[in-house]
Amino acid sequence: MSPKTVKTEPVRPVQVKEKTVSQPIVQQPSKPVYNPNSPEMLRYKNNLRAALFSKFAVGSITGSGECSIQFSIDKTGKLINRKFSKESSNKALNDSVYYMLMSVPRFNPPPSGYNGETIRMNFKINNGNYEISIH
Hints:
2 helices
């Protein structure tokens, strides 16, 4: 007996028409994008700087030095994660900045566009002349 040969044809893919169902698009309310230089945020940071500066004993500092601090603000206005990012070799400057930072544990709630980004303050003092910036 001889083996039977079976002839097969190549398999062709079957195209099935799919039914497209439209789903309504639900837009989530988007959070405002943080702009550190928006007029609202600049006004907020300037008011915050003034509140902090009111607790800064600049008259008790002699000599010169530079230091920097950083912190965030929660949605209720509480200053969180407060710390030095750069300390000065001038102990009196460090002590005054530390006292100032601890004296203002809470401020006004931040603008809606602020999402907890780090705020930085720089202090430069040189024999009574000083410069305080906030970023």
